[in-house]
Write a structure and sequence with these properties.
The chain has a single domain, classed as SET domain (Beta-clip-like), CATH 2.170.270. The chain contains 2 helices and 13 strands, in the order βββββαββαββββββ. It is mainly beta. Strand 6 and strand 7 form a beta hairpin. The chain has a 4-stranded antiparallel beta sheet with strand order 1-4-10-9, with no helix packed on it. The radius of gyration is 16 Å and the shape is globular.
């Protein structure tokens, strides 16, 4: 059996103006509705040592020393949720692996989450969310984006979008 995350049938993955690919509402989603459940194999850090991990995915931390993640390159895409970062997110985390709508979401709207909710990597990231309150949305005179104050999760280091 291939490890996979659940994505609501009301969602669809497609190209995103924020980063790579994103998860979008195909139909309206009500506040509190489940949009995704993180899947994967439960792996200890010891199991990950020396193991060749699929490119672009580091695992989703669930407890000290444990992550949810794929075992094969084929599984990598199936466990990704495609939730891009936003400083004005419309999805939040309930518990550890359940992702729910924080407000009503219109059909066609991208589903986003604030990576600071994961509490992972303390390094700031370059934010491209374009939210009104985002420190990365205003440009310096050189045109370079400012650094977002949100901390990014270990899983957000992936080169392809699929948080």
């Amino acid at each position: 059996m291939i490890a996979a995350s659940y994505r609501s049938p009301k969602t669809v993955v497609r190209g995103s103006g924020t980063h790579g690919r994103g998860l979008y509402a195909r139909k309206a989603i009500r506040q509190g509705e489940i949009v995704s459940i993180r899947g994967g194999h439960i792996l200890s850090r010891a199991q990950l040592k020396g193991r060749r991990r699929p490119p672009g995915y580091l695992g989703y931390p669930i407890a000290d020393g444990f992550v949810l993640g794929p075992l094969t390159k084929r599984e990598t895409e199936s466990v990704m949720m495609f939730l891009n970062h936003s400083c004005a997110p419309n999805v939040g985390i309930q518990g550890q692996i359940l992702f729910v709508a924080m407000r009503n979401i219109r059909a066609g709207e991208e589903l986003t989450i604030d990576y600071a909710m994961f509490g992972g990597d303390p390094k700031p990231m370059r934010c491209q969310c374009k939210a009104a309150a985002c420190p990365g949305s205003s440009r310096r005179a050189t045109g370079a984006a400012r650094t977002c104050s949100a901390s990014i999760a270990v899983t957000s280091r992936a080169t392809s979008s699929g948080r």
